[in-house]
Structures are given as C-alpha cells and as structure tokens.
Amino acid sequence: YRCDDFVVNDTKLGLVQKVREHLQNLENSAFTSDRHRKRKLLENSSLNSKLLKVNGSTNALCATGLRNLGNTCFMNAILQSLSNIQQFCCYFKELPAVELRNGKTAGRRTYHTRSQGDNNVSLVEEFRKTLCALWQGSQTAFSPESLFYVVWKIMPNFRGYQQQDAHEFMRYLLDHLHLELQGGFNGVSRSVILQENASLSASNKCCINGASTVVTAIFGGILQNEVNCLICGTESRKFDPFLDLSLDIPSQFRNKRTKNQENGPMCTLRDCLRSFTDLEELDETELYMCHKCKKKQKSTKKFWIQKLPKVLCLHLKRFHWTAYLRNKVDTYVEFPLRGLDMKCYLLEPENSGPESCLYDLAAVVVHHGSGVGSGHYTAYAAHEGRWFHFNDSTVTLTDEETVVKAKAYILFYVERQAKSGSDKL
Q: Which SUPFAM superfamilies has this protein been placed in (predicted)?
C-alpha cells in the first residue's frame, strides 16, 4: 500500500478491497492518535467530554477536520464552509460515485487519484468524496490529498505549498465545478441530475458561462449595472451574473480594528453593502465610452441586484495593493447572524415576498495575520443549530458570541425559507 502498488484482480467477495479499506483506516488512526487528546470538543466551559445529549440519547460529536497538507488552510476553510451549506453539499453527496472496474485501473480511484494518470481526473468526484468524509463521524480528521492533487492538475495557480487567497480559491473551485458539471458526470447528464433535485427548479437558475448547474442554481445572482454619461445624460444598462459580491470596507472605518474600540462609529455589513450599491462617480482612469458622444466621458455608475441567489456569498475586500506591497484592512465589520435584509438593494423590491429577501448566516471564513501570502485561515459554520470552529484538523464547538466577534473575510448567507423571527439588520 505504501509503495502505491495495487492488486488488479479482486476476488468475487471483494477481499482485496476490504484489505485496502482496512489499511486506509489504520493509516488514518495512526496519523491522528497523537492529536486525539487535543481535540476535545467543548459545548461550554463545563462540558469536558465529546459526548452530548441529543434527543434524549448520548451521541458522539461527529465533526471531522481536514488535515493541513502544507499551507492548505485556505482550501480547508472553504471546504468546511461549503460542506455546511446543506442544499449545495447534499447535491454532491447524492451524486453517483465514479467506480472504474476495467483493466489496470480497477479500484485505484478509491484512494489515489494520482494513480489514474494525468488525463483522468475529476474535480466533482474528489469534491464529492471529501464532502462525504465530513460529518460521518468515523474519523477525527480527513486528508483531502486526492482533491488537492486534482486542484494542482486543473488549477495551476494553486500548485506548490505557499499560502493562497481563500476567496480566489473559492472562485476557481466553483467555476471549475460548474464547467465540469456542464459536461455531464459519470455518464449521467447534468440536466438529468438537476431535474432529479426538485428544489432546483428552472425558475431559480442563473446561467453563467453557458448552461445552468447546481453551482449557479445555488450561488448565482444577477446584478444590473447602470452607467450614466454626465455630459449628454445617456444611460447604459447591462446585466451581470455573479456567484459572490466583493464589498469594499469604506475608508472612514479602516482605522477601527476591534469590536470594542470606541473611537468613531462601528463599521457594519450594511455600510459595506451601501458602499457597493450607492451611486458613484467614476474617476479619470475609468472614463466611460459614450456611444452618443462617440468618446470617453465622465460618468456615474450604480449597481442594483436584479436577482438574489439562494446562498448569498459576501467577500469583504481586506487586501489592497499599495505602491510596493499588498496590505490588509484589519477593520472589524459587524454582521448579523440572522435576518440580513437585502430588499433595499433590489431593483424591483415590490416583486419579492416578505421572507424572500431575508438571509441567515451559515458560515464565515476568517483570515488571521497581516498579509495575503501569510497568516492562517479558519472557518466558523453552523450545523444542526450548533456553531463549530474549523481549524484544519481541529474542530471545536463554539458559541454565537464568539462567531460575531470574528473579523470576517467571506460570509455565506442562506435564504430564509420559512418565518423564524423578525429580527433584521
């Protein structure tokens, strides 16, 4: 097993496969035995056991961490966040598994994608296997080695073991999942798979780069971009699909570092959203080519949200370039756990229902440190009513008070399906 060699011809009872699975379990347990003692999952300061009372019975907490393969915390934080977006995660976990049963490749894909050779890798399959490994409770940490190999293969930007930007990785990951699903998966048409999931109706799809997939059905929204020429008044409108919104932290808040600091007003998520959607006059470097004036002119622009997604992903732009280096904006931004109301940013709010514009927080990615090429990423996510902190292979129970103090980098909000309170941002 360690020299990555395989027996090709299995028995009818699949005994060789059972040996492989047993060896894999041994390797997992050996790797984590020395860390097991450190991984006490505490619900509060008085809880000193991994056992929790759930529905009257005692159950072990089944959260699974992701091993750091060498500065891969940026990937782990995104994977843990996506795994806790239920509708998105369930879609992939319900996909049929890829099983290669012919010739020399039989059985190898189970653990070592690299054994398949360079021309036969599937991001969807490795993403599916990683999601299936999380929350099943059979191990304290899972190694996303095969997924990382596929990432190296199809996303050259992420080769090597240097720290990467978690938001950039998320965009590449979603884009490549979208493209691969467009081409069909495991011999099953993408459209057939979507049709089988009744919750992803055609009316809720947003097409980005071709046909719709679960990626655009869940994360896809549409912006209306209005540009007005200040010389002749000509208005230009276009619709731009999006998978996430990148929000500036307004400059007047950039010196406020912590939640409890009292010098000046607190920066809120509403301030960032307002800055994104407010009317803005473009500067000299962004002159608009007016078709009526036949030349570049000064103009204003404004964004409206024409269609909200099922999962609203908000990226706070904490990294910006100066003349020589990329600095981090370390400002604390206050964000709601429940009831984020997006109605005032809609192009046609009158056409939306009272609950359709309300969002509840599902996950938060946090960057710790001073620079994009350094530091560390962790994630907070809600699962079955409880909040967890995912720090690579370590997973701990936490509380809402800790989550709201986090300096968020990426926020994942899920559309509220039913009335569950009237608190709003």
A: Cysteine proteinases
Share of the chain above pLDDT 90, in %: 41
- For 136-254, strand residue ranges (E) read 141-142, 221-229, 235-242, 245-247
Is 73 catalytic? The answer is yes
Kindly name the residue from 62, 112, 368, 376 that is annotated as catalytic.
376
- Long-range (24+ apart) CB contacts under 8 A made by 164-169 are 164/71, 164/74, 164/75, 165/74, 165/319, 165/372, 166/74, 166/75, 166/77, 166/78, 166/365, 166/367, 166/377, 166/409, 166/410, 167/244, 167/246, 167/315, 167/365, 167/409, 167/410, 169/74, 169/75, 169/78
The answer, as to whether pTM is greater than 0.90, is no
pLDDT digits (tens, 9 = 90+) for 363-378: 999 999 877 778 899 9
pLDDT (tens digit, 9 = 90+) per residue, 124-142?
Answer: 999 999 999 997 777 789 9
**Has 376 been annotated as catalytic?**
yes
